[in-house]
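In practice, a research group might receive sequence data for several interacting partners and want a quick structural hypothesis before committing to experiments. The following worked case mirrors that situation: the sequences arrive first, and a predicted assembly follows.
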Amino acid sequence: MTLRWPDIFFARSKGNGEELPPFGRAVGVVTALLFLSLVFSFAFYRLQYGWDWGAVYRYRRMFLAGWLVTLAISGASLMASLVIGLGAALAQRSSFLPLRYLGKLYIELIRGTPLLVQILVFFYVVADAFGIGNRYLVGALTLALFAGAYISEIIRAGIESVGESQLESARAIGLTRRQTYRFVIYPQVMRRILPPLAGQFASLIKDSSLLSIIAVNEFTLNAQQVNAFTYSTMESYLPLAVGYLALTLPISLLSRYLEGRYHYAS
Amino acid sequence: MRLRLAGVVKRYNGQTALDGVSLQLSDARSLVLIGPSGGGKSTLLRVLAGLEMPDQGSVEIDGEPLIYSEPNLLRHRRGIGTVFQSFNLFPHLTALENVTLPLIQAHGYEKGPAREYAMELLKRFQLEAHAGKKPFELSGGQQQRVAIVRAVAVKPRFLLFDEPTSALDPEMTAEVLDIIAELRGEGRELVLVTHEMGFARRVADHCLFLSAGKIVESGPAQQLFSEPQTAELQGFLGRVLKY
Amino acid sequence: MAAKPLVVGMELAYPPFEMTDTAGHPDGVSVQLARELGKALGRPIEIRNMAFDGLIPALKTGKIDIIISSMTATEERARSIDFSDPYLSTGLCLLVRKTIPITTIADLDQPGRTVAVKKGTTGHSYAAAHIKEASILVLDKESAAVLEVVQGKADAFIYDQMSTYKNYQRNQATTRAILKPFQTESWAIGIRKGNSDLKGKINRFLADFRRAGGFDRLGDRYLRDEKEAFRRLGFPFFL
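A structural hypothesis for the assembly, expressed as C-alpha cells:
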C-alpha cells in the first residue's frame, strides 16, 4: 500500500498516541516557515518599503555592544534573582511571622505592578533617595527583584509539590528536619524547578528591553538609536528580534530537554 | 515485645481517633490490629511508631516509657522500621539508594559498607535486579518489598506495617505478604494493621479489634477469629469474611 | 462631496507647540497651524499622535500625510523626506545642573561628564556626532531627561532653546539655562518625497499666513511669557 503524497502532512492517531509519517516533522516545519515568509513578504510588498541595509550595517558595532549588555545584565539579574527568590520562598515558610509577611508583601507588590512602573520608581525615586546613581546597577537590581518574586513562587510550588507522604516517610526512617531538607526535598525541588527557571531566564532577557527607558544602553535602545539616525526602521528592528531569539531559543530548547529528563511520576 | 498503654487519647480536628486505649501485653511477637475504617488502628500504629504524640495517656515499650520530646522520638524512630500503604520510597532515588539513605544518614554507616549490605538484603529478597531502578520503574509490589527491605536493613527492634497491601492487586499482595510471613518466620517482632483477614489469622500471635477509638476485643489470634466474643466483632468478621 | 482629510502627524508631548488640553484634545501652536493649513487647502485635518522617532517612518509608509511637530529640517532627514520652507528658527541649547561650572558645549565634552538627549531629536544627532569624551544618556521623553539633570544624574540636557527656557523656569532651584544656541536650526513641515504639488501649496500658505500676522497671533496666544523673557534676554523671538 503506497502512501498518497498528501499523507505526509498529517500525523495519524494510533491507539494511545500518534504516528508521524517519514520526514513528517521536516515537511511540517519547512511548510510553516514558508507560509510565514509568504505572509511577511506580502506585507512588506504592500508597504512599498525601500530597504536600505547599508545604513544599519554601518552601525553593526552598536548592535553587538547592546546585545552584549543585554546578555550581561540578564545574567547578573538572573543570579541575583535566584538568591532573592530563594530567600523569599524560605521567608514565607519561616516561623518568624514578620519575616513571613514581609515575604508575602514583597511578592504581592512586585507581581501586582508593571515592570515599567517598577523601573521608573526604583530608579528615579528609591535609588535617588539612597544616592545610588549607577543605572546599570539599579536596572539589574530592579530586574532581579522582579524576577525574584516569580522565582520564589516557582520554588515554593516546587517545595510544596514534594508530597506530604514523603515527609512522613522521611520522618519514619528517622531523618532529622535538616536531613529531610537536604536529601529528600532539595534534590527533588532542584529537578522540578529547572524547567520553569529556564523559562524565567528567557522572560528576564526579554524584559530587560524595558531598561531602555532609563537610558541603559542595552540591545533595544541601541537598535532604536540606529533607527533614529538612519530612519531604517525595519532594518533596525528585524536584527533586534533575531538577536533576542538567538538568546531565548537555546534556553527554550534547554528547558524542554530538562523537562523530558526529569519527568518521573512522584 | 512488652507493651503497656494507659488511657491513650488522640484527637484530630475535634474527632477522637483514640478514646482512652489501655493495653497490657507481656509477650506478643506479632500483634495485628483489625477493625473498621476510621476505628483507630492506623492511629494506634502511628503512636507506637513515634509519629503521633497522644493528647493524654502513656506508652511503654519493653519497659521503657516513650518520652514525647523530639530527640527521644527521633531515637525511637531510628530503632524501628515502618512501612506505609504507599509512597514509602523517594522518587528521585534508586531502590538501592532508598535503602542506603537511612543507613548512612541515621545509622552512621559508611557509603561502601552500606551499599554492600543493602545489596545483600535486596538479593535475599530477589530484588537485586531492580537495585538501580527508580520507583516509577517498579511495580507496586516491588516498591513495597523495597520499602520492607529498607525497614529491615536498619536492624529494628520491631517492624510496623500500616495496611501494606491495601493499594496492591491480588498478585502483588501475595508477594508482599510472603515477605512479611518470612520475616515473621525468622522471629521478628511486628505490629501489623491489615484488612487481609486470612493472613492476619495466620501470622498474628495477638490480635486487637478496634472500633470507634476503643479496643473492643483483645486476645490471642486463634481465639479471636474462631470465637469472637462481642457482637461487634462477630458482625465485623461476618461481613469481612463473607466473600 | 467632502474633501479627503489631511492626516497630520505630531508627538503631543511638546508644549506649547504640540500638547493636549485638559480634556485630552490636541492643542498648541502646531495644532493651530495645522488647522489654518487645512482651511487654506480646503481639507479637514486629522491629528495623529505618535512618538517623535516614529514620525518619519509613518510619513514614508503613508500612514500620515505631513509632519508638523517642531521638526528641524536637517540634511540627513532631507534624504528621506522633503521639507517646506522653514517657519521657525531656534537652536540647540543646554539645560545645566546649577552647581556645574559649564558655560559652553566644549566645557561639557569632557571625560566624566554626562549629557542627556531625547531619542531621535537633533540634540541626539548632535551628541552622537560631536560629543566624544562625555557619556551620552539617551532618554525616551523630555521629562525624563529633565529629571536626570534635576537629580544630578546628568550634567546637561541638549534640547531646543524654548523648551530649555521653560524647563529652567520650572526647576530654578536645581538648574540653569545657557540659552545662546550653539547650533541654530529651523523647523519646517515634513512632506513625502515627490509630492511637489502639496509642498508648493504649503509654502504658499506659510508665506500668506506670516504676512497676515498669523504667527504673531500664535506667539501672543501660546508664548507670551517666552516672548517677553526672550525680549529681555536680548534674543530674537523666533516665531
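Before designing any experiment, note the following. The first strand of chain B starts at residue 3 and ends at 12. DSSP finds nine helices and ten strands in chain B.
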